[in-house]
Amino acid sequence: MNDLSAIIWKGCDPLISDAIHRVVEGWKGYSNDLNAKRSIIVLIKKFMDPAIVEFRTKLPIDYQYDFLGGGFSNYSDFLIRYGYDESRIILKKFEKDFSQFNYREKYYHESMSTLSSIYSFTLECEIKRSKKSRVRDKEGLEGGLNQNRDHVYCIICGNRTAFASLVAQKSDPQGASGKCRPSYKFCSEHTPVSNGKCNSIHKRGMRNLDYINKECFRILKACFLRKHVKLSDFTSLIDFYFSHYIEKHQIEDIYISKVRRHAYEMVRDGISDNKKGIMALKKIGHSQLAIAEGLGIRRQSVSKALISVPEKFRI
């Protein structure tokens, strides 16, 4: 089932939060009906448009016009005009511009949480679009591939999927049997079957998928908190670690494939929460002996953990 989900940030406007939940619930009915060829735009027009119009009136006058790229009163019209990919880039730019506006603190944080939730919803819509559009070749002719399927990036590692690679290379996706066989969810490294055999790398990746998704969420959370919280104000060692990690690698939540790639490599290389905590304490300025005493472990364990962490994951 092609379930739809989206991150709703704490403090999000209740109308927007309720509308997103309604779209998510409505989409489950669409994805359960294998014969349904309905567009998610129908649900967006019904639930999101009224909520977006109401939220827009709460923004400062100077920002109301620019909210949906200018000239669009309805969120659905904005998506139809620009497409999901370009729409989320416009929303992210507006979010950055708005973050510099010093409005009343309480409503400011609510607005930022709402904007981030709308951006997350738009990103999810891009990934879970309905199965109607077709891939067009460079002459504009429709091919036999379904462009709107979940093909943007591998759900395990964030690399380009086998399907997306074929589209980018303008290659013939037809196999010897005349049927289309590229993977819409996995890259060539993580396809379930490789050379006619079960792919052990795919199995390992699927076993770790929950951990990868967890690290993805932490990175996205750190990108969000970076706009509102000073590095010195973090109380969680994990949040402190990720805040420095995204600064080191210049990670932006607009590049979701890059976020997933970092999360995948972090899980693959065994960067546990214990190691993150040790590196965070080291960054703060604690000695190995103090870290060992604070965590209740031996100093040699601290030293061994620090040595085992590749340079990429150090802060």
Give a structural overview.
- With 315 residues, the protein is mainly alpha-helical.
- The chain folds into three domains: 14-127, no CATH class; 134-196, no CATH class; 209-313, no CATH class.
- Helix content is 57%, strand content 4%.
- It contains 13 helices and four strands.
- It has helices spanning 14-32, 40-58, 61-64, 75-99, 105-127, 162-169, 200-207, 209-225, 237-249, 256-268, 273-284, 288-295, 299-308, and strands at 134-136, 142-146, 193-194, 197-198.
- The strands form two sheets. Strands 1-2 form a two-stranded antiparallel ribbon.
- A hairpin with a 2-residue loop joins strand 3 (193-194) and strand 4.
- Helix 2 (40-58) crosses helix 4.
- The longest helix is centred in the N-terminal third of the chain and has 25 residues, at 75-99.
- The relative contact order is 0.08.
- Mean pLDDT is 77; it is low at 31-37 and 130-150.
